Inverse folding.
């Protein structure tokens, strides 16, 4: 193509020198919320001794935020697999045009815990769909395609070890994570606008998840894992390793609703970012 | 429940008097982009002679924007079915707690056209999935559930008639709309980060869609139609009619990429809003 417009990022190969702007990127950190990832990027900027007045590099697209600090790109991905899949396609193309060679992708999320206390960090060992299979399913030209969704076990171990060094004895577990395509019905919540199952059916499903080693539910893990794997290993765009670290906001075996006081909520929302900051420090990713 | 926190809207039954704040709502207008729906809400405020400095009523949730002008609520829903499904669950609960009786839901979208020129308004007659069936599929407790996704034919006709009164002879068609769970591979684009089909396979799929009366592809229509239908008809939360009006940004039979100059892009993005404004005027929805 003469020009490639990364439409949702608002970045075009005609007007942006990708190699110059993004050639040094080694880490891509993504989160659902634009506010949360902005706060994370500002924390990185402060750590690097830079201004925290960071420009949104994806402002022209009108859909995502994108910040760069040192060798780190930070972006929001919205909620759900379709939204993160758009970000990933365009992020992979950005890194490809920038001639990046090896890149670590980390999703920093919030999630509903299964059998763990609110405020627990879950480092994902396996990304499952809501039938507890490790696939990202999409339909291409009308036909279902199931893509394997592996994550990097070494990076998960590294994050787990680093989490032991966080202050205040933050609880941390390694566990399986389920990707749902909805917050209410697909996550077996009874408190949506409608619900067509009983409390005992809900508990049977969640207990089954728990017995299989599931520690949390969120809405992007299979897509994130599968598309990173495909970009790195099969499409060989560049070498990719990927990890997911989420904090739990509720123990779903006890409640459907998130009931945290604002102070606790503000504190625990930052935990994935604090862990990833420790990783970035270790790898000198913030030096400019 | 003693308290119901609409988590992503950041509105709780403990701190918000839903009946007082939202009891007069008759129209809910939603769009993917926060910027676009804000511009729409500001246009409504101007029309109603109100300040355009509208507060985001969902600011505490940190995920969506929500504005109220007269009898109209306007919100963004992000990209994809999982994201809009969250907004709809919480919007239905909001309207239920507000004791609203009959409510018209309209999605104002952007889309990729099939066989129509960029800048065409498409009023959806039927919402299809990427296998061209009119269902919203979700997986509840691990089992697939297929929900019918009908839209209101009278409201579609009313919008179509009103569209004839828009200035500059805006092209408008009634047609079927396909909901994809991704922007690239599921919409048969060749220009994603990776692609596992050929140009001729792509064209065969798009031509099949065209021959079945499909006018455009977007990413929310089946979920929007099915959940509105379920809320209104089956769950009987309140009486709901729903419609979708999207503008096309590209003719997918000619290009995968959106190639519009900024001026044209800015103009045609506003067309769904201008049409819905005409509807709201007709129904006196903006008087305070």
């Amino acid at each position: 193509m003469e020009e490639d417009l990364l439409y949702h990022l608002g970045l075009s190969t005609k007007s942006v020198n990708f190699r110059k702007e993004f050639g040094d990127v080694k880490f891509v950190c993504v989160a659902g919320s634009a506010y949360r990832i902005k706060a994370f990027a500002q924390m990185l900027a402060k750590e690097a001794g830079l201004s925290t007045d960071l420009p949104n590099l994806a402002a022209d697209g009108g859909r995502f935020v994108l910040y760069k600090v040192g060798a780190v790109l930070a972006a929001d991905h919205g909620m759900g697999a379709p939204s993160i899949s758009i970000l990933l396609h365009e992020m992979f193309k950005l890194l490809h045009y920038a001639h990046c060679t090896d890149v670590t992708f980390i999703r920093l999320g919030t999630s509903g815990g299964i059998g763990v206390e609110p405020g627990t960090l879950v480092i994902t060992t396996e990304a499952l769909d809501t039938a507890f299979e490790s696939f990202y399913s999409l339909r291409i030209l009308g036909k279902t395609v199931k893509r394997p969704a592996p994550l990097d076990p070494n990076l998960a171990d590294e994050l787990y070890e680093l989490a032991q060094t966080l202050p205040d004895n933050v609880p941390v577990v390694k566990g399986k994570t389920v990707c749902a395509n909805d917050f209410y019905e697909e996550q077996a919540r009874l408190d949506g606008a409608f619900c067509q199952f009983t409390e005992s059916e809900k508990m049977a499903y969640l207990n089954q998840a728990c017995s299989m080693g599931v520690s949390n539910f969120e809405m992007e893990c299979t897509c994130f894992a599968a598309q990173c794997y495909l970009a790195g290993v099969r499409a060989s765009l560049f070498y990719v390793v990927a990890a997911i670290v989420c904090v739990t906001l509720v123990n779903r075996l006890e409640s459907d609703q998130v009931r945290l006081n604002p102070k606790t909520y503000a504190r625990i929302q930052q935990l994935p970012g604090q862990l990833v900051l420790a990783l970035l420090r270790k790898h000198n990713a913030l030096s400019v």
Observations:
- The longest strand of chain A covers residues 239-251.
